Amino acid sequence: MTGKKRIENDGVYAAICMVVFFAPIVPSQSIYIPADKSKINDWFSSVIKPLNQRVGALNPELGEAEAEPKIIKVKQGDSGDFTTVMKAIDSVPVGNNKRVVISIGPGSYQEKIMIPRDKPYITLMGDPKNMPNLTFDATAKDYGTVDIATLTTLSNYFVGAYLTIANSAPKPDGKRAGAQAVALRVSDDRSAFYGCNIFGFQDTLCDDRGNHFFKDCYIRGTVDFIFGKIDPKLTVITAQARESSSEDTGYSFVHGKITGTAKGSFLGRAWKSSPRVVYAYTKMTNVVNPTGWSHEMQPERAKTVYYGEYKCTGVGAYSSGREPFTKQLTEKEAEPFLSLDYVDATKWLLPPPKI
């Protein structure tokens, strides 16, 4: 796990090893995430092999793009190709069809960063031993909720590795309008994040479009801090925006840890009518509300939500007090949420980049 630093802000912090979003299909046995956390890295390496061992298995356009990657260096001072991340991104041609690795040196980069939709195959990569800090302080009052993120990714096949991504706007106090402050918005398809810290308060991570995979990431916030398609006194982890059982969307958290300083935190609330969220093999401390979940004071949504837990541990995982509309999943029910095929990952996911 990364991101073990604790900052006292009366929030709930989630240190999440894997997060997979969207598209469950029938998986093969080898791509199920193992129950034993100590085996995850070996399992991942055995399934998600390097490019030279995946010929014919990956999406053709990805194989071509990865063949000859270009490296751009961003460093503070005069030793890099650029001194800001956005200048490096601007240098990538529109319609780019080759992997571009933007290597970011240590330090704090105070800028609003956006990967446009017409620039796929971009990687932002820091040093895992001295991660760069990408930070901005925009709020919904300034830009609107979905456009305020410190880092917004709109392009397919994006990779973020070993980055701290933060929105440094003040914690909402219940008085200021438009105090939501997104750190990361992921609104593309087939994107992966490795070893990233994602920090904010309300609406920390906006995941609203496409298939995404997070590994060894630490996500921290207070209200709705993982949301997509409040009351400031509440702490709520997810607000997933599925509106119909026919929508093939959802969040799956596997081998995570939920900890922090808050009390009575909800695993999810029914922001829309049919959210689908599953926690598996997740350690839950006493920050979690014994009821677990909220139907948003709209009892009719108790019939349409899909809130599931599977073999979770810790005092916060006790099922005796859970709301009756939640599910303690059987092995068969949990299987689709424990598979890399949940995001069709075997066709596009590659190991963390190396330079």
UniProtKB/TrEMBL annotation:
GO terms under biological process: cell wall modification; pectin catabolic process
- Spell out where the chain crosses the membrane: 12-32
UniProt-annotated catalytic positions: D224
- Per the UniProt record, which EC number(s) apply here? 3.1.1.11
Gene Ontology MF terms: pectinesterase activity
Question: Which EC class is the enzyme in?
Answer: hydrolase
Q: Which reaction does it catalyse?
A: [(1->4)-alpha-D-galacturonosyl methyl ester](n) + n H2O = [(1->4)-alpha-D-galacturonosyl](n) + n methanol + n H(+)
Asked if the keyword Membrane belongs to this entry, the reply reads yes
Q: Which Pfam families did the record assign?
A: Pectinesterase
Where the record annotates domain Pectinesterase catalytic, the positions are 74-343
* Pathway(s) it belongs to: Glycan metabolism; pectin degradation; 2-dehydro-3-deoxy-D-gluconate from pectin: step 1/5
Q: Which UniProt keywords apply?
A: Aspartyl esterase, Hydrolase, Membrane, Transmembrane, Transmembrane helix
Similarity section? Belongs to the pectinesterase family.
- Could you identify this protein by its name? Pectinesterase
The organism encoding this protein is Hibiscus syriacus
